[in-house]
Amino acid sequence: MNKDIILNYFLSVGSSYRYSDAWAKKFIDENKKSRIARTGKFGIGVLTSFLIGSTVMIKTRRLGEKLGFQF
Fold first, then answer.
1. What are the two backbone dihedrals, phi and then psi, of residue 19, each rounded to the nearest 5 degrees?
2. Is 40 left (phi over 0), alpha (psi -120 to 50) or beta?
């Protein structure tokens, strides 16, 4: 994930990057079909992780980039 995705989708409960205009431009073909499978929903998974423990460590790096984020 990049900073925009982390702040505007991952940390925003119930938001989904996969239903955003940015996703559509990158992953929807001319027939309005997704080029990759859409599974999960950002925000909900983050909340469920707190059912398992009291803290969560996120380490992420966008595909093709050398640096990522940890928080």
1. -115, 15
2. left
Per-residue pLDDT tens for 8-67?
Answer: 888 887 777 877 888 888 889 999 888 887 666 555 667 777 788 888 899 999 889 999
Q: Closest Cα partner for 1 from 33, 40, 54?
A: 40
- Tokens 């996703």 found at: 23
pTM of the model: 0.66
Question: What residues contact residue 20 under an 8 Å CB cut-off, 6+ apart?
Answer: 9
Residue 56 CA from chain centroid, whole number: 16
Question: Is 39 in contact with 12 (CB distance < 8 Å)?
Answer: no
Check: CB of residue 1 under 8 Å from CB of residue 32: no
